[in-house]
Design a protein that fits this description.
Order of helices and strands: HHHHHHHHH
Structural class: mainly alpha
Largest sheet: none
Amino acid sequence: MQARKVFPMLIPRPLILAALLALPCGAQTVYDRFRESYPLWEKQLEKGDATAVRKAAEAVIQKEGAVVNPSDYNEMRALVGAMDVAARACVLQGDWENAVQYLQKASGAAADNLAHAEATFGKVRKDHEQKLQEWTAAMEPMEKRLKAMDEQPGLSDVQMKARTQLRASVAEYQAAVERSRQALKEIDGLLDQLRTIRASYDKSLEEWRTFLERERLDIAQAGSPARYVAEKLPQVRADETKPRFDRLAYARRLKRLDPANPACAEFLGSLVGSDEPVPTPKAEAPVKRKRKATRRS
């Protein structure tokens, strides 16, 4: 095997999923389905059961994802996560062309989510910035007056009452300013995360496209898919340093390219603990010969 990674990986798990799983529950269909199903999907992928995971993730994408509100960034993040899982299941199946298709959809959904979030939160952010300026300007003379009163000895009862009211007003402004600053921090953090997610998918998509093009050229150079598989399989089998997911995905890829190669089935059996069936050509039915009619005497 080459010294570089076996094939481009999809977006790192914590980048999109940690934030999703930490969100509060709501009436968000895709989000609820994703949050409920993701732990099971991960366990199934670890065991090598790509088919069940792909089928389940595709069901979420096609059913709940078809009616997702594009302006709901939490729902869109869950949809991107489901597409990511479907892509990884395709990788594990050896169906890398469809993995790229799901990766392309995830990249597009991530870009749309970022665009909607920037438009929505851009206005909210501007409102918070404007309020911050207004509140800070209003609070400045109040704080100066309060400081002067605190430094003045022998306040009358009326002055002390006015100082208490003034201190309460300043505290209200300070609390409002802190809330807006926290909101701006959260908005900026969210937008940064969505930008990072989009950039990661764009990068992964480009890497996978390049990788598949390189595979196509290697097959052409070998002369046929069968010859390419015969040359590549010993390399994949010998490289035991790669994670099981990588080796299993590559073994299934080679089997997909040459289903009739019995060595692929043997290698897959050693990885999953059981023999995987290998398609074999159907035997032709014997041709029935017509019996010649005999004359009866």
